[in-house]
Amino acid sequence: MKDVNQLASTIKKAFYIAQTGRPGPVVVDIPKDVAQALTEFSYPESVQIRSYVPATRGHPGQIKKAVNLLTSAKRPFIYIGGGAVQGNASAEVTELVRMLGVPCTNTLMGLGAYPGSDKQFLGMLGMHGTYEANMAMQYADVVLAVGARFDDRVISVPSHFPAQPKKVIHIDVDPSSISKRVKADVPIVGDVKYVLREMIDLLNQSGHKPNPRSLAAWWKQVEEWRSHNSLLYTPSTELIKPQFVVEKLYEITGGKAIIASDVGQHQMWAAQYYKFDNPKQWLNSGGLGTMGFGLLKQPWARNWPIRMQPLPVSPAKAPFR
Predict the structure, then answer these.
(1) Domains with residue ranges and CATH for the chain
(2) Can you give the pLDDT at residue 288?
């Protein structure tokens, strides 16, 4: 951007790009001479960018292929990412999963897109996820990825992912995210909310569902994996364990709290042991690793900076060493 007269429309375009399609940061490079220049301007109410037109509706043919793959699968699995939360598609995700009767998982950023307390939910997957979610992801014969990235925390090395043969259906509003790390057999570019709604409508029209016998065998295997109880920990009468704290927090709040997390092991404990039933209950920076994120999300932080005073607790009465 080299002309100060274009500055207002450029800023408007930046906000438009940041808030549409796959939301995210936009860099506006303003040279020093433009920053120092003066001009009269009017801020545009709307803008159009010929080279940037985010897709909303998915391709009907690809959606039909995806539905056929899911209903013919013996071991279907639904993998839900942060795109389902950003795309306000929680209701559609939940309806599809329950309609098909298949197991599902959420990523760290997708927690709450599908109810964490539901029996069909296998927990978060990836390096900090549950045994059953990771095994189901590996041994499924059809994986439906909804607004997810197949990042390294989820699948590790991409070349190892196809070790167990499977078909991948990938829905994302950002075409550059599809087949970026794992090749999609059925790529669908579009807003996940609209694409899932069209899939649900097709399923309602056709009445097709996965084979009950095959699905029962798949669930039997999933329950065997779940029986390992990978998040089990040994309670202590001497120490208050963080897993217990998060579980107690879930119990006291009835699962309705909005949790703001910083970066570190406590982030994983919260993700593992708090059952997020609704989208946007879970506020964290994901894999970005932004320290202080949880602190600055607190309501009182609006008045930052404030001076924190230590609590007047004497060593003799201190509850913890």
Answers:
(1) 1-54 (no CATH), 60-226 (3.40.50.1220), 242-301 (no CATH)
(2) 81
